[in-house]
Amino acid sequence: MPRWTRLRFLLVPMLSLALVVPLPLHAEPPSAADLAAATNAYSTAQAAELTGEYAAAADFYELANHAVPSPEALRGATRMRRKAGHLGAAATHATRLLQIYPEDDEAVAVAMELLRQLGPDLARVTVRCESACGVDVDDAVASDAPQTEHMLYMVPGDRTVTAVFESGLEAIQTLTTESGARVTITFEHPADPTPAAVPTSRAGPRLIPAQNKATIDDAPSGSVRRKLSPAWFSVTVVATAGLGAATLWSGLDVYKHNDKYEADPTQRGFEDGRRAEVRTNILIAGTAVFGVASAALVFVTRWRKSPNTHASARRLPTLSVNAATGAAGVTYGASF
């Protein structure tokens, strides 16, 4: 067997897992758009994990779990956050595994072992909201599921916690945590203030209407989030999808060359297979690079909120990739 045929042992799990997103038992069937987004996010996460891009893999596992919740996606996010050194996020995911999937033996085992190892060195913060909210920690999404109570783990130090209410308003508190500490903070749902009524005192939570944040001159440095145009995300995600489709096609082409070589082992067949392997490796690298960029842009893009959509429920882009020997197709859609 020629050396380049070793690639097929990578492609077998990658291609097969890219076709199916694992779903939790007894879950309602997901919409076609959510399933398409989850499938592509999950397969991109797997590719990033294989290349050692653990932070990017975690981002895409989380994106897949947001679109179609599943223990497999959340376990993947937990493992990748730990490998990336994001210990607070990893422990928080472990807590969610225990809460959401207590009957999944593998999920419970992963979560218990991780919390046993990391829990004593982290601070556990319970965030309570008067009405359902999502929570950001230091401008990173810690929990985007709107609910009235969140249990989070944080690395000791100074932290900024933001409650994102379904009305679009945000309340911000800062706190200092220590290893092993157990802290509870509470957010009240703010009234709907006008820009002139926004409090300027730094004491207590600072309430800023989401739609007016960028126009408030006295906001302290770091409290105003400037989002990028969705066009940037569109460019990177379409590039990632195109490269991903080309990678799938190229991987299938490696299969074809391998089968041809095994049937008729010639020097020309060997060289064709080597060239196909090099091409596939280049495409994998390119897909990973653009995938990392797409993952980063997901969290800094200014998505348009529909009047009928909760502010804390982010709209996911939909992406569909179809690949076959000799052809590949990509469809993409998003709401800006």
Structure description:
The chain has 2 domains: 177 residues, no CATH class; 104 residues, Immunoglobulin-like (Sandwich), CATH 2.60.40. 45% of the residues lie in helices and 21% in strands. It contains 8 helices and 8 strands. Strands 1, 2, 3, 4, 5 and 6 form a 6-stranded mixed sheet that branches. The protein has a two-stranded antiparallel ribbon with strand order 7-8. The N and C termini lie far apart (50 Å). The N terminus and C terminus are likely disordered.
Summarize the topology.
Blueprint: H1 7-18, H2 32-50, H3 54-67, H4 71-83, H5 87-100, H6 105-118, E1 123-137, E2 140-154, E3 157-165, E4 169-177, E5 182-187, E6 206-209, H7 230-263, H8 267-298, E7 318-324, E8 327-333
Parallel strand pairs: 1-5
Antiparallel strand pairs: 1-2, 1-3, 3-4, 4-6, 7-8
Helix pairs in contact: 1-2, 1-7, 2-3, 3-4, 3-8, 4-5, 5-6, 7-8
Summarize the structure in short.
With 336 residues, the chain is α+β, with helices and mostly antiparallel strands.
Count of DSSP-assigned helices: 8
Q: Sketch the topology as an H/E string, one letter per element.
A: HHHHHHEEEEEEHHEE
The overall strand count is 8
Characterize the overall form: elongated
- What's the pLDDT, averaged over the residues? 74
Strand fraction equals 15-25%
Biggest sheet architecture: 6 strands, mixed
Number of domains: 2
Which bin fits the share of residues in helices? Answer: 40-55%
The Rg value, from CA coordinates, equals: 22 Å
Structural class: alpha+beta
CA distance, first residue to last residue: 50 Å
Instruction: Catalogue the unreliable spans.
Output: 3-21, 200-226, 304-336
